[in-house]
UniProtKB/TrEMBL annotation:
<dbReference type="GO" id="GO:0052693">
    <property type="term" value="F:epoxyqueuosine reductase activity"/>
</dbReference>
<keyword id="KW-0479">Metal-binding</keyword>
<protein>
    <recommendedName>
        <fullName>Epoxyqueuosine reductase QueH</fullName>
        <ecNumber>1.17.99.6</ecNumber>
    </recommendedName>
</protein>
<feature type="binding site">
    <location>
        <position position="6"/>
    </location>
    <ligand>
        <name>[4Fe-4S] cluster</name>
    </ligand>
</feature>
<keyword id="KW-1015">Disulfide bond</keyword>
<comment type="similarity">
    <text>Belongs to the QueH family.</text>
</comment>
<keyword id="KW-0560">Oxidoreductase</keyword>
<keyword id="KW-0004">4Fe-4S</keyword>
<dbReference type="InterPro" id="IPR003828">
    <property type="entry name" value="QueH"/>
</dbReference>
<keyword id="KW-0819">tRNA processing</keyword>
<dbReference type="GO" id="GO:0008616">
    <property type="term" value="P:tRNA queuosine(34) biosynthetic process"/>
</dbReference>
<dbReference type="Pfam" id="PF02677">
    <property type="entry name" value="QueH"/>
</dbReference>
<keyword id="KW-0676">Redox-active center</keyword>
<keyword id="KW-0671">Queuosine biosynthesis</keyword>
<comment type="function">
    <text>Catalyzes the conversion of epoxyqueuosine (oQ) to queuosine (Q), which is a hypermodified base found in the wobble positions of tRNA(Asp), tRNA(Asn), tRNA(His) and tRNA(Tyr).</text>
</comment>
<feature type="binding site">
    <location>
        <position position="90"/>
    </location>
    <ligand>
        <name>[4Fe-4S] cluster</name>
    </ligand>
</feature>
<keyword id="KW-0408">Iron</keyword>
Amino acid sequence: MLVHICCSVDSHFFLEKLQHDFPEEKLTGFFYDPNIHPYSEYQLRYLDVQRSCKKLGIDLLEGEYDFENWIDAVRGLEKEPEKGARCEVCFDKRFITSAKKALELGEKKITTTLLVSPLKSQEQLKRVGDDFHEKHGVEFIAVDYRSGGGTQDQSRVTKEEQLYRQDYCGCLFGLTMQREQQDKLMDEMFSPISGQTLPASIEERLEMYSYRNELEDKSIEYKIIKQKFLNYRQFNFKLISGKKDVLDAYALSYSTLPRKKAQGRIEFAAHNIHYFNREEIKLITLEFFNKQNSTNYKSVKELIYNPLSYEQELTFRKEINNTDYDLSPIIVVENIPDTKLTIQLDATTYEDTKEKIIIL
Ligand code: SF4
């Protein structure tokens, strides 16, 4: 039986039940989910499905991440709510491709882990499955592992197995609607030009779950815990000298400007820190930055495209301000300008939660 898999939270419990209910069947997993956006989230879900299938001794195949085809298929349905017309097209696409894969592999039965998701309509899935059966002869196994306490059992398994628990269905459109309803920043869509791994980003989770797999390979015991913290994202930043001369400049993480703009000039300097006469802004030279961080950046541009890690930046910020809670702008420039300056900085801090591994 070919089992289309959408994520480990749905698949681990589902595959365990299938193994129990169909002991004669050789199960093969098929991860085909081009709906998942961004690609890093796709990689993260696939990583966790790989771990889950390995634990259960189930072979796993990966489908093509044909995101453009998926976008074409749902065009015009972007504003549909979950369980609406877009989801129907999304299921059809994933199911039909999986069913074709089953045909190609000579499998006679197919099912999908989407059947256990509370966000999916089982009737909708069954309709598509039965239709394919009629046309191609691959039987759709529409098991119901949700009722009779199934959903509670699934939650228990998710917790016990420490599976990666995503908090949105998968696509860009569903995520946009969800974040709008929650009035929450859609920080999943940030992709800094620097490639820096941002706190509580998908990239950070991907690193953490890869590390978790390494720990398991070495039989090191661990726990994944959650932490509340103040997160930060920078939307844009510009330092202008005089009327329109844009200078190369880098604003350290956790630099914020409540009114997004400040105008003034450097008032004085002490211990290599140059104090602006507005909004507690500080400027430092790249030379000083290099000295303090034992780095060798040749230009601020180089720093912009290849910054320190977030943690290193925070440590440096703390050194300059002598506190963990400073949110004033710290700007790195090649030379301290003696002209009138305009600082445009759009950045936000917000309460957030992130996962962390602790070794037992
Ligand atoms: S909300 Fe989920 S099921 Fe619906 S279209 Fe997006 S990814 Fe597919």
